[in-house]
Amino acid sequence: MVSCDIRMKKIELEIVALSHSITQTHSYAVVLGEVNGLRRLPIVIGGFEAQAIAVALEKMAPAAPTHDLMKNFMNAFAVELHEIIICDLQEGIFYSKLVCS
Question: Of 20, 39, 96, 98, which one's alpha carbon is 20 to 30 angstroms from that of 77?
């Protein structure tokens, strides 16, 4: 199990791009950019995840029911997501904590 030290300095990020991955075929990359900074963090994701992110960014309603179990769970129980803390990277996998109420 990965533990996150939430006392470390946080860097606020925003989605700056969603594109085809240049390192893996049939994959996409969501590029997170440092707010008021120059650093970028590319994260390789699958096609379904890229489509779900694109739909959310464009504020479109999906044509079919969403496959996003976590989103449906949070909506059903009125859970509000405040922030996501990316706290580790092991063997190409990012680990994070969700701060919710």
Answer: 96
Q: Is residue 80 part of a domain?
A: yes
Cα atoms in the 13 Å half-sphere on the side-chain side of 95: 11
Instruction: Kindly state whether residue 5 falls inside one of the protein's structural domains.
Output: no
Structural domain for 59, as ranges: 13-100
Q: What is the CA radius of gyration of the chain?
A: 15
Structural domains in the chain (count): 1
CA distance 22 to 11: 25
Walk along the chain (101 residues) and give the pLDDT tens digit of each residue. 666 766 778 889 999 999 887 777 778 999 999 999 999 999 989 888 888 888 888 887 766 666 678 888 999 999 999 998 888 888 888 888 889 99
4 is a domain residue: no
